[in-house]
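Handout, section B. The chain below has 404 residues.
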Amino acid sequence: MKIKKIFVPLIMLIFILLSSVTVLADNSEPNLTAKSVILIDNRTKKILYCKNENEKMYPASTTKILTAILALEHCNLNDIVTASYDAIMTIPSGYTTADIQIGEQFTVEQLLSLLLVHSANDAANILAEYVGGSVDSFVSMMNTKVNELGLSNSHFTNSYGKHDDNHYSTANDLSVIFQYCLRNETFRKIAGSASCAIPATNKYGTRSYASTNELLIPNNSYYYHYLTTGKTGYTSQAKGCLVSSAYKDGLELISVVLGSDNRFSETKSLYEYAYNNYSIKNIVYENNIATQIEIPNGSIDTKKLDLLVYETIPALIKNSEINNGINPEITLNQNISAPIEQGSILGKIKYTINGVEYTTNLIASHNVEKSKLSVYILYAISLIVLLLSIFLCFFFIKKKRTSI
């Protein structure tokens, strides 16, 4: 019995200690070899983890996300494109290709698959020539797009990521470019493919390729179930690079890893860190009553008015703070007066969480009719004036008769 009395509390103590260790492990930041990293929530743009995110780095083949989005914005997927001599023969030895032949024809969609799935550099040049008229013109388009996105730490000299001292970007800039790319559903679909199959062309037989992104390939040791899209990159100067996105429980994340010794493992660690420490929580729901106001000129029956939340607000919250109360800031429109229609926007409600603002409108819960009291008062005054006038008339008439 004495042993049992000692043994049971001891087991419970060990269990508590192990649980604490697990929690600490979940909350600890990932240990990365990557030289530059950024991890953000795609919806709020909140940075969840970063390391040298504004340092200029060589992007290698992650360059191709910009090439792809420009092609998608300037071409139809079923356009037929013919490979030129220059597009193929200018690819340096050792760079990945799809063995495209001079004069071979593809659709734009097939070239995009070769570009984003197999990371074919010849496909990049073919698309660049087709979109820009020449590779040089296309590169100008790339840098124009970067400027349009407000990015000042990126400059591109080629369409596919060939090493060049003047071809550089940052983890932060690449995350912004990738956010822009993810607005395009075709980009999402192709960049999220685990493989691609290209049918026989006028010059070559069928081609099949697995994605260079091992996180997308089922049964691969690096496979990550929550990964949705991604583009790899590697040169001896850039080392391992990976731009990607993941989605779990309503939380879509974007990760950029540059200069890594193990881009797949470290990307996965970043996502697990975020999903262990952050969640999406609805902080207020559609039609919740935010506050009640009184409309001064409203009728007695309708002047007390509930202001309702227009839409549900999902917010990014740290798991350690998920039960903390959040006080909103309510701003009402000026000069609110009756009549008011149900559903009219009368103000805004704002929540600020970890530096991120979440806002929606406040709407009227019911119609507010204008009070008729002022009308009744006017009627009463008019009646009094009328009666007084009649009285004075009779008074003066009577006085006149008396004087006669």
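Note. Residues 7-11, 13-25 have pLDDT under 50 and may be disordered. Compare this with the example in section A.
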